[in-house]
Write a structure and sequence with these properties.
The complex is a heterodimer. By secondary structure, chain A is mainly β. Chain A contains one helix and eight strands, in the order αββββββββ. The chains are: A mainly beta, B mainly alpha. Chains A and B meet through helix 1 and strand 7 of A and helix 6 and helix 7 of B.
Chain lengths: 144, 199
């Protein structure tokens, strides 16, 4: 009986190890882990955000970030949130720029306050657009 | 092949067959076959007692067979519905435990699999690299849990099959003992051959 129990435990452990080693297939056609020809765009760096000063009628935030390698990036997405750890909503899209070292974008704002921004780069493939990691957040104060 | 040759071959075969049969009969030892000592019967009474015991057992066997359970039948029941064979063999607690554990394991496996597939679908539809990796990891962990629970469910199912054989054998042994007790203790006995009253 004791031997039977030990055998049962060993067989169970072996089956568990075998089954746990089975992984889900990475079947997303844009997944670089399973498709070597796909390359994720690099993280956007150098993001800064400057809000419009007091007394400005049309309020805005001016964003600026360093341009990515043109071979790795076809465009950029801009995200905005109301806190650094809040959910961010995609608000704009910028096409690729081949000249200069930075990209500048002006975002119109309706109400004064603090706004948080993130930017990501994307690359277009036949199966769709693959978006890279989001940048660090940047904060802008828009005065009344 | 001509007909005459075929007849000769056939005759040879028949002859060989008759010869083998005759020689086999010639070597049969009738004394050894009928020697009662080989059964442990040293006296005439031993043989009488054995015969009486055999007749009694044959009567009991019919009673036993009415209550005994088929092992293959219980295996089939337990294979279809874990614990059913144990229930059938009057091992209610064991049947309940096996059924409960099996349901718990299968339920957990389904719960984690469902969660894994939910995240896997999000992974398949995602286009952002961070989301893609996060959803994949969120799918992988519950998927492995579901596999572990499925393994446990399979092991419990296999144990259930192994156990139902032993449980049925034990039940049948108890039935035989009960049949013996009832037969030898009861003053009035109803057997397949009629009613018997002991004074």
């Amino acid at each position: 009986m004791k031997t039977n129990t030990i055998c049962l435990l060993i067989v169970t452990l072996l089956i568990i190890i075998l089954t746990v080693s089975c992984e889900l297939k990475r079947s997303n056609p844009l997944d670089p882990s399973s498709h070597p020809e796909i390359e994720a765009p690099p993280r956007v760096t150098g993001l800064t955000a400057v809000g419009s000063g007091p007394g400005v009628a049309s309020k805005y935030v001016q964003l600026e970030w360093a341009i990515n390698n043109i071979n790795q990036t076809d465009g950029y997405y801009i995200y905005m949130g109301l806190a650094y750890n809040s959910a961010y909503a995609r608000i704009d899209e910028v096409g690729n720029v081949s000249t200069g070292s930075t990209i500048t974008r002006v975002i119109p704002i309706e109400a004064p306050g603090f706004y948080y921004f993130k930017v990501s780069a994307y690359k277009t493939y036949p199966d769709g657009r693959l978006e890279g990691p989001l940048s660090e957040w940047a904060i802008a104060r828009v005065d009344n | 092949m001509s007909n005459s040759l075929l007849q000769k071959v056939l005759l040879c075969l028949i002859f060989i067959l008759i010869w083998v049969t005759a020689s086999a009969q010639g070597s049969f030892d009738i004394d050894a076959f009928t020697d009662p000592a080989k059964y442990g019967w040293t006296q005439w009474e031993d043989r009488i007692n054995y015969r009486y015991d055999l007749t009694e057992r044959q009567k009991l066997l019919q009673l036993y067979e009415m209550e005994a359970q088929s092992i293959s039948g219980n295996i089939l029941k337990s294979a279809v519905f874990p614990g059913w064979g144990q229930f059938n063999a009057r091992s209610y607690t064991k049947g309940q435990v096996i059924l409960a554990v099996e349901i718990a394991m299968l339920g957990s496996a389904y719960f984690f699999y469902d969660r894994a597939m939910d995240n896997y679908e999000k992974y398949q539809n995602s286009t952002q690299i961070d989301d893609m990796n996060a959803y994949y990891q969120d799918a992988l962990v519950p998927y492995q849990y579901s596999l572990v629970f499925m393994t446990f469910a399979t092991v419990v199912w296999a144990y259930n099959i192994f156990d139902v054989v032993q449980t049925t054998e034990r039940y049948n042994a108890e039935v035989w003992q009960k049949t013996l007790r009832n037969y030898y203790n009861a003053p009035v006995q109803i057997t397949p051959t009629g009613i018997q009253i002991r004074f």
